[in-house]
Please model this.
Amino acid sequence: MRTKSAYHESLFSMRSNVYIGGEAVARDDPRLRPGINVLDITFDLAADPEWKGLATARSTVTGEEISRWAHLPQTPRDLMQKQKLIRLASRRAGGCIQRCMGHDALSALAVGTKEIDMAGGTIYHQRFLEYLKIYHDQGLVSCCAQTDSKGDRMKRPGQQKDPDSYVHVLEKREDGIVVSGFKMSITQAPYADEIIVLPTRALTEEDSDYAVAFAVPADAEGLSLITRPVWLREKDKPGAPPFCRYGVSDCVVILDQVFVPWHRVFMCGEWQFGRRLALLFADSHRHSYSGCKPAISDILCGASALAAEANNIEKASHVREKLTEFAGAAELAYSAGVAAAVYGKKTDSGVFFPNEIYANVGRRLTGETIYHEYNLLTEIAGGIAVTMPFDGDFEKGDNKDALKRFIVRNPALSAETSLKIWQFVENIGASAMASWYKIAGVHGGGSPIMETIALGIGYDFEDKKRVARYLAGIDPALDDSHMRSLEPDFIDDRE
Ligand SMILES: Cc1cc2nc3c(=O)[nH]c(=O)nc-3n(C[C@H](O)[C@H](O)[C@H](O)COP(=O)(O)OP(=O)(O)OC[C@H]3O[C@@H](n4cnc5c(N)ncnc54)[C@H](O)[C@@H]3O)c2cc1C
Model:
């Protein structure tokens, strides 16, 4: 398996196409390091014998041991292992582990290319499997560029004034295609090897040029990554706590006449599958959220419990009650992920795909509760998260001894521990990173309205009406076909 240092080595030798604040920067720029540190966690877990079989899996195309982030789920257990790995890794990173977008894009392409081929006799699936073989052999890391900049939200891709509002095909050549357009909010792109580009929405025939999916090296000619790194205030301080080592970068990805050889093209013109491919990524990603959002709740719950201890209010009944709300948010989301795995389905591609209803209800719940969870932390912690003096005031100067007394509220805690708790609460609840998590919690994987739409289409409302009709005495018997359909497509693959 690829090692962390091999990943660094190839990353730092990539063409310079990353821009921050109007300047081209190398990939070893310190502002990108917090994100790379997060990816390092994923390499460390894969190399740790304790997590073999969880952080690793056996490749379906090479038979070799690979990182689970590159593995196509074959069974319900694979999906649950992915979910557990995301929660485990996210707890270490203090949040988003950033590898699931690539994973979910691979799953979407595996399922989607098979379906496109079955409908139209194309050869995308075989192409994709050949790409996957290289991906597994080299232990590649990818991000997913699905979200187009979208321009005027009320217009379809083909109706936009600026055609680059959505990524589209400019030219089909004998050896490949040429594409242009803007993708936005693309997490992890400046420290990924590959960018997997997928359509973001349903398309009509007039949008055929926008029906395109492919993979490109993240430093391909014509590709620019306009990067916004997010990190914590203390990141550079020697001896900073683990949480402060980690961060994230998101990009506007500009594709300017990028050439993509055919062997990397997985959809080109099949507009009827735009919605399907977009949803395959979104649903797989919503299942991934059932791993990371419980981890965010774990972190917020832990921060709130520590703040309660520092305030010496741990035993107050309102605090105990508030802490149980985190338990509800975390474990309901996690349960939805488990249910999505158990009630998932084997697709024609062989990929075991999560149940869309459970994946969507889990994701919607977490999107709805995220601000409430931050509010719980704020209520328990009080206002110190945004009014505390800077670190230097506690370390040097005339006031440091007074501040050491000031910071202690619970006499059982030292000044040093109390300060660490409040700095942690500030970082978790009131930093740029905290705002990132709030907004990612709402919009990442699709805005709540997208889950609402998915549930509106996919949920069996007729079944519920049948129950009501029977109980109301309109129908003489209850049609139980829905309950009969709730059979797990379960293959127990434990070795
Ligand atoms: C932190 C973060 C990380 C992300 N990482 C990635 C990533 O790695 N890869 C990726 O592909 N994407 C990523 N995203 C993008 C994410 O999927 C989108 O933010 C999400 O799908 C919403 O799209 P948007 O931001 O363009 O908002 P919009 O789609 O513009 O939504 C804003 C509002 O407009 C409404 N709206 C939009 N269109 C219409 C319409 N036609 N009619 C009526 N109402 C409409 C929406 O319902 C919503 O209320 C990330 C987002 C965040 C916040």
Summary: The two ends are 21 Å apart (CA to CA). The domain at 280-458 is CATH 1.20.140.10 (Butyryl-CoA Dehydrogenase, subunit A; domain 3). The chain is about 50% helix and 15% strand. Residues 101, 143-147, 150, 153-154, 185-187, 250, 436, 439-440, 443-444, 446-447, 449 surround flavin-adenine dinucleotide (CB under 6 Å).
